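Anyone opening a protein record will find just a pair of labelled lines. With that in mind, the following record should read easily:
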Amino acid sequence: MSNETAYVLLEDIAAALGLRHEAQLRVAFTEEERLPSCWPVSDLAAASIAAAAMAVSELVGSSVSSPPLSVSYRSASLWFGWSIKPVGWKLPDPWDAIAGDYKARDGWLKIHTNAPHHRQAALTVLRSYSGSR
């Protein structure tokens, strides 16, 4: 997996914070384990942590010749997952109210209704079945 997105994000974050471009040359992103997402969440997490480390380095007067900075995608992803919480709103329930396992006459039925089109399909089938009895 490429680290290109993380470096692009780091460059944007560093520029917005007024950090020296030369300090970015010390950054290496390690461990490819990332959060499962269609968006570059782990790249953003790693780039944000790298930018914070660069800012601390500049704050304490470290020079560009300072030791390399290594940011683990896995650690950054875990930190984001555990510490970032919504402010002023609640995360929606990850499961739809009717999703789940249901006892049927001949076994069990698992209904996945988290996607709106899956929910609609399940309700259509259930309505047609209940109307035919």
